[in-house]
Design a protein that fits this description.
binds magnesium ion; alpha/beta; binds adenosine-5'-diphosphate
Amino acid sequence: MATSWTPDQPIVQCVDVRKSFGALEVLKGISLSVRKGEVICIIGPSGSGKSTLIRCINALQPISSGSIQIEGIEVSDPRLDKLALRRKVGMVFQQYNLFPHKTALQNVMMAPIHVLGQKRAEVEARARALLAKVRLAGKEDTYPGELSGGQQQRVAIARSLAMRPDIMLFDEVTAALDPETVKEVLVTIRELAEDGMTCILVTHEMNFAREVADHVYFTDRGVIVEHGPPATLFTAAKDERTQQFLSQVL
Ligand SMILES: Nc1ncnc2c1ncn2[C@@H]1O[C@H](COP(=O)(O)OP(=O)(O)O)[C@@H](O)[C@H]1O
Ligand SMILES: [Mg+2]
């Protein structure tokens, strides 16, 4: 789809996004924008609608009203080319969902070959480089069941990157990990961010959010209560709900 988007405009723009499941409205007018290369973190209590928002941005859930544009493309447009969107937006979940009967390398190679029809040799070279990038060189031929949670999550990140997305969405990707493997996954995400990848992260790792985010959004019950640069939000939150949440998690 042709758009007039240029990189100096927001790469992701949500305007008054609303989403209901039946009578339950879980997103009540969310507006946010992300510039190319920015890292934003979305924090807030369970049930705030964080995962729903992430899923709407990736068109995994249709929105009820409002607008979400990715590189100028309206995600709720019924004519949306979903494959084109999948190529632009990578997503990593709490559950890594690797194929258990495929090796790490095969997991990373699958989508570019089977979804995009790219040449095996090229894809393999890229997949090997990506596994090295997420610090899994030497694990190419290992099956997911033989890897730690943190290693599996890094394979999942490499698998997303193999589609060469412009934007990466991370939904609590360390929440299910053993504490000792959380750090290695955060290191991988930090390096991606330092390389200039645009990242939207839902996270409970407040220290990480403070260090890597350009901007932090605090959400509660379907609204953005407050947002700002981490130095401001984490030390001088204005809203009582933000202060209370931060006092519980910091
Ligand atoms: N597919 C769905 N159908 C019905 N309700 C849902 C669905 N997905 C999420 N919800 C509800 O939406 C609210 C927000 O959920 P979620 O986006 O997962 O919040 P968070 O990620 O912030 O914990 C919750 O009340 C949840 O039960
Ligand atoms: Mg969630």
